[in-house]
Amino acid sequence: MSEGRKVGILRKVLGNFYNSTEELLFFCPKCNHHKRKLSVNVGKNVFKCWICDYRGISIRKLIRNHGSFKDLAAWSELTSEVDISCFSADLFKEDQPWEEQKLELPKEYISLANRNSSMISLRARNYLASRGITKRDFVRWKIGYCETGEYGGRVIVPSFGKTGYANYFIARTFIGNWKKYMNPPAKRDIIFNELYLDFDKDLVIVEGVFDAIVSGPILYRYWDQRCERTLNCSKRLLKTIQQFILL
Known about the structure:
Layout: H1 2-14, E1 18-20, E2 23-26, E3 38-41, E4 46-49, E5 55-56, H2 59-66, H3 69-78, E6 109-111, H4 119-130, H5 135-140, E7 144-146, E8 154-160, E9 166-173, E10 181-182, E11 204-206, H6 209-215, E12 219-221, H7 227-233, H8 235-238
Parallel strand pairs: 11-12
Antiparallel strand pairs: 1-2, 2-3, 3-4, 4-5, 6-7, 7-8, 8-9, 9-10
Helix pairs in contact: 1-3
């Protein structure tokens, strides 16, 4: 039953064939010889062209190279093969030298830890208070704001890499701009505030930076919007996480 379905897939991918004892003879899709010289043995899971020597020890290779995705999926349902050649090359490549991203905070950045009582700073403080953020958090997380410039009317929450340099920041409006968040011109594949992480303790993964601030000092802001790139760059983090708690 299974072998008959496999033959049907091969006919769909390679065309009609001649049946020669245990082998099926197709036109070779590699050299396009005018005679059917591609020998396929379904029972032994091998194939070979007697003209161009196109061969393989897995018929799945034939289906993958010359059939459609639907054909390959149908073939996979009939076999227990795992095609490791389809895995990302990143899985086995050597780790690249690590280089920390560094950037400057906006030149208009003003720390909210300062005693600033301007009307704009009060609006920033009131917004943060509505998110459950306290004065102590201003100091701990170096939270500030901008009154003017590209990030005017936005709260600035900086991120610091493990060497202590700023490597990113969150700019969230507190005056009702249509665009709530504005990202800096920098890569997002970083560990947010890695400077404050203790890899010997359990880490709690949360959705947003404000969740991390109000939930506790050991939290880590996970960039779920760009998880594929983040996972690639954050192997150091993922190797040490002992517990995942999704909030």
